Amino acid sequence: MLTPASTFRRGPLPAPTDKATAERILDIRRWTDKLITVRTTRNVSFRFQPGQFARIGIASDRGGTIWRPYSMVSANYDEHLEFFSIIVPNGAFSTKLALASVGDTLYVEKQPYGYLTTSRFVGGQDLWMLATGTGIAPFLSILRDPEVWAQYDNLLLAYSVRHISELAYRNEIAAIAQDEPFAEHGHKLRFAPIVTREAVPGMLNRRLTDLLHDGELEKSIGLPIDAERARMLICGNPQMLDDVRQVLTARGFRPDLGRAPGHFACENYW
Ligand SMILES: Cc1cc2nc3c(=O)[nH]c(=O)nc-3n(C[C@H](O)[C@H](O)[C@H](O)COP(=O)(O)OP(=O)(O)OC[C@H]3O[C@@H](n4cnc5c(N)ncnc54)[C@H](O)[C@@H]3O)c2cc1C
Ligand SMILES: NC(=O)c1ccc[n+]([C@@H]2O[C@H](COP(=O)([O-])OP(=O)(O)OC[C@H]3O[C@@H](n4cnc5c(N)ncnc54)[C@H](OP(=O)(O)O)[C@@H]3O)[C@@H](O)[C@H]2O)c1
Question: Nearest 5°: phi and psi at 140?
Answer without folding.
Answer: -70, -35
